[in-house]
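Subject: mismatched residue count in predicted assembly?

I count 1525 residues in my input, but I want to confirm that the predicted structure covers every chain. Input:
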Amino acid sequence: MIHVLIFLPALAGLVALVYPRWAQSLGLLATAVSTVLGFGLLLGAGSGVAAYAEIPLLKDAGVYYAVGADGVGAVFAVVIPLVVFMALLAVREAPGRMIGLALLMTTGLLGIFLSLDLVLFYVFYEATLIPSLLLLGVYGGRDRVRALMKFALFTLSGSLLMLAAILAARFVGGAESFLLRDLLAARIGGAAALWAFAAFALAFAIKTPIFPLHVWLPDFHAQNHPSGLADVMGTLYKVGVFGFFRWAIPLFPDAFQAFQPYLLFLAAFTALWAAWIAYAQNDWKRMLAYGALSHMGVAALGVFSGTQIGAAGALFLLAASAIYTGGLFLFAGWMHARFGSLELGPTSGLARHAPALAAFGLILFLAMVGLPGLAGFPGEFLSLLGIWQASPWLALLGFLAVIAAAAYVLGAYQRLFHGPPGKIVAELGGPEWGFAVLATVVIVVLGVYPALFSTPISEAAKAFVSVLGGGQ
Amino acid sequence: MIPTAILFLTGLLATLLGVEAPVRWVRWVVRAGLALALGAALFFGAEGQAFGGLFLYDGFARVAGVVGIVAGLFASLVGARYLERTGMERFEYHALLAYSVFGVQVMAASANLVVILIGLEILSLPLYALAALRYDAKSEEAGLKYFLLGAVASAVMLYGIVLLYGATGSFAVSAVGQGPLYLAGLLLVLAGLFFKASLVPFHWWAPDVYQGAPTPVTLYMATGVKAAAFAALARVVVGAGVGGLAGAVVALVVVLTVFYGNLGALAQSEAKRLLAYSSVAHAGYIALAVFGPNPAPAMGFYLFVYALSTGLAFAVLSQLDEGEGVPFAGVKGLIKKSPMLAGVLAIALFSLAGMPPFAGFWGKYLVFVEAARGGQYTLVAFALLTAVVAAYYYMKLLALAFFASAGEGGKTPEVPALAAVTMGLVGFLVLALGVFPGLVYGFFNVGNLVP
Amino acid sequence: MILLPLLGFLVLGLWGRSFKGQSAGVLASLMVLGSFVLTLVLLFGGGASFEVKDWLPGIPFALLLDNLAGYMALIVTGIGFLIHVYAIGYMADDPGKSRFFAYFNFFIAMMLTLVLADAYPVMFIGWEGVGLASFLLIGFWFEDQKNADSARKAFIVNRIGDLGFLLGMALLYSLFGTLQISELREIMEKSLVLPAGLGLAGLLLFIGAIGKSAQLPLMVWLPDAMAGPTPVSALIHAATMVTAGVYLLARSSFLYANLPDVSYWIALIGLLTALYGALSALGQWDIKRIVAYSTISQLGYMFLAAGVGAYWIALFHVMTHAFYKALLFLSSGSVIHALGGEQDVRKMGGLKKYLPQTHIHGLIGALSLAGFPLFAGFWSKDAILASTLNYPFGGYGFYLVGLFTAFLTALYAMRWYVLVFLGDFKGQGHPHEAPPVMAWPNHLLAVGAALAGFLALPEPFWNLIERFLAPSLWHLEVEPLGTATEWGLLLLSSVVAILGLFAGYRLFLGRLPDAYLAFQRAAESAFYVDWLYNTLIVGPLKELAFGFGLADRGLDRGYVRLGGGVGLLGRLLARLQGGYVRVYAFFVVVAATVFVLWGVVR
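Triage response: the counts match. Full output below for your records.
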């Protein structure tokens, strides 16, 4: 089943590339099935790894196709197809082939979160880049090639060096294969571990992203297709935090502890810096890009805290922010469809003519602000509890950023919805309702009953912490 | 051994036929011969030796030979349009190709320095002619350059062989001696092989020749010749022992090569020349394999997928090339003119960039594993760092083909059906091997390089 | 209890348009009434609790209805119900009224969550929820940019306080490993040694309370919050939201009772806020802003009480204040309603004649606020003043300043009353009395504002409230003042109150002295705090945002330069490839020679 879960979207994607007219319905079907399967995994998730499967890929070279879902994997096995499903509900004017690429990416992302073999992880990690690049390159805005180059080069400079570290992770310690358990059984230490961790950290810091390696992000979002689909995929692709959690830190715990203070500081700085800049943005997508960056800084802090609760919060935040940040990008797409522009200035007073639209927008925005009772809060809160134990001062910095979210988010919201009513715009219509209702339900359910995700994540985080040698 | 014989006979037959029969026949004879040789190599490739061990058809020879045959076949199958347009469609082209592939088999199948040199000459001499075959100034310049520099390199290598013989009293690659004489000899032999493998700082001919030569010939040069050169190089280096001077020299050369090849490619504005630099850089990656305890599978696999990928890229360029090369403007907006060409170009470039799920990734992965097993982590990291640069220029080419609007006078290139099918198949293979590398890995998993 | 108003919110929010006429308001009011009744039933049934284990890892979703929670819940739902009813009349003609009542119900639901929470994160849900509701309500008439801005300001200033709350929770968690209030309390009861850092935790939680209860220095949002419809102002200020800070302190009494230093700061801030609010109230011209500043001031009193350790008195004042402040706001609302939206007191006056009912309400409210003997506000305020003398963290300084502030309070209460109801009418049109649906809640509130004080009388009379709340609060040893002293103080403050009222009556009916006018100008802009914040903090922060944006671009450009540098290097290298065979041959020979030399020499 787990294979179906992973590869069904890609299959649909391939078909969609050939028959673009079916793309949307096929995509909806495939992601719905994957979501349901993922949900099955989630409900069955215990303390161990569920649905483990292992097939030799290059047996002599010790590479396996090994997948399975621990708590974190199961959560993302739900979140990823679910978010894509919602995105497909929301987009109205996306070309069929674009949807096909998004579906290919979905499989890559699922693979990233479910791989239990390091090389397989790397394969998925890199493979996902290709449709992502194509999405940007084919369907992006005027300056897309520049944005694409930046995105590709940043990602690759990290990941290629990581490949060297991946080899070191196995061969320095003499592990039997690249399977996670074999690697953990023969962990490497000393200077080699420091270097290898540095390479992993670089790759994941770029993908998180963490200051000063984030500069690809704003352009990436600003140049992507206005429908927001590509941005959603890009948001899901920010897997750095997960990478630290699953691979970098458990494989090189000592090296991590050597780097921890610097990483914590950079993450906190990222959170604050980005939040601050978000305030000064006049473009929807740039604002969201910086806002999401700030949230990722907080998530990174959570993982870097090295505590169970912090890591659990970070991953919860990662999952939840995929939902609401993705939702906001799609929302921006709707705005673009209505006004033909992504600027935040010229329109106002939407709440008058489109109250339901405004209400839905508010829910998304508030989730981003981290209002308790919505999906954004539990992750931020748990991260904070963890970060405090690592460093109260950085917790303060990071949480200034969380608080500051209110400033830029509400500012944008009010510029759009409040004030004297301008042009009459279309209210929520047709399939948009489907997205709005689904997204609202998900955001509220995760806010009101976070245990749905936090319990399995926390189980996985327990293992993470035990690797670090105790802690809570 | 059978394939080698088949190829020799094919060459002879082509030469004889060419005197009277139409070119069309020669073409098909050569293609049939290559295909036959390929089949023989794959299915009846029994290992063996002849001439008292001078000719050694072992597993690795078979692998390298297959790469050479595939390269020749590839060039033959996709080159039709180019030959037609540039007036090169003469029987000599096909016959020379067959001879050269035969040369590859010989060079790959020996652990004796003299035989290696003979093989090298067999494969090179036809190439000198092939490079100059287009009958224009550029082509002739390329042929001449290749010949002159090749002569220098051969001389250097021959001199090295002589010194080695003087020092060890043997022509075998595994003969290890000592003293300045031995070391000088070894280095000179290596220099000659570095030249053929286009490793910096002996690569000078490559960009100019690749660019000037007829594109299908470039295709073959960049892929088939490299297989032979690396087969020989690997035997010599492993024979001499990577722990010693040979290893140190290769490490130095690898650093120079990946650095120069990748950075130099950045400055290019013509697709063939860009790929020439890229193939220089790839030579550096391939060479990494020699550091490992078991270099043959990695090197063979890399050579194979690299031949497919680079071949595919040059195959696309062959369709676009009107005889004057392919400036970037010619690639611009390819997706609109020919989605099929653009698609296989994308596959080729992603594979060359080493991105999964394309075969090129596993090639890179395997050679890096070998280097890592040999403890060359710094080298690996450096090579990978320069691979970022490589990604940039591949991406640039790709962006031109996909994301830029079409340039002026953009004619839709007509791709002959055969070429299209070939490219499609190869593209599929590159993708399939990327997803299931285990399918063919067993074939490359051969034993020792040195008897 | 929580679910009822939440249901109302959902129904009204989703299908609001299908509610015609006044049905939306009626439904919403019934929901709140239902909660009220339910609270009563449960409370007399001995309380209740509810818990979802592992809501978050290690943090349960716990609700607890004990006496303290019940007391607050009754205030919230009781007064909330009256305000709901009043709003039916006040909002009768507004097209968005079902939306309005949806927000209202949401507010009540969140407030109840806050009150009933037995874990800080759960309290934080309510805490932020009421913040959100107030954001929505203040910005209810969102088409006016000013309202929207006020709403945002309220939310953001509150968020600053929330930072304290969040960090406080983090610290408590790292100290005790739990955030359940009842567990924390048990731990505190058992442990003899206080962990270091507890004071900081208390301080951080207190910052949260400062934000929510509009204390110095985070009080700037509250006067601006007057932008919302009047019942909103009443609901936010009087009954509920702003008293959440006081409730937090009372809930955490087990914490603060062990932290004299922090308590001292609480009292001090409360005192200063009371003074500042009273002074600022004297300079306002907007009928609602006067009441708003008075709220700030009264909240200061509550903090003073909580700071000196008299938690039950703070809560007592919460209740009396809820009555008279709601009354004041609603009568202001009636006045505004009567004048068709006019809020400037300079255009009022003499309304006694036109609005006899409202006049009585206003008078009772003002007297209760001023602490006129026997009115509700009198008893609670006096209890606060007295507590500064006998509770453990009190002192004479607190008492004296508090007394002076009481005088000011009486003064501005009178000013408000005089300007609105006495003198000659200076506006236009014919004011008319409000409909019964608005008048009746005021009648009930007026009764409360007059009589609620009798629930807790000083010795030797009965004191129901202290006894009722005692089990939920931390027990502090208090030296009784002695009946004589206590009644003496009572007398003193009555004199002060009456003096203030009288002074106000004389002062504001006649011509004002010049010195007062100068003071008034400063007080009108609340001593320039807004301006100060804008220039010193908000402005620079905004500028910095743009600056950082530029810096980020610069960083971007730096990377591009780096890329350009690599490209340049590439071009230089490629230049070696000049095309001349002789050069190439030379290179090859040189390279071979160098290699050989190197190899041999090595």
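The mean pLDDT of chain C is 80. Marking this ticket as 'not a bug'.
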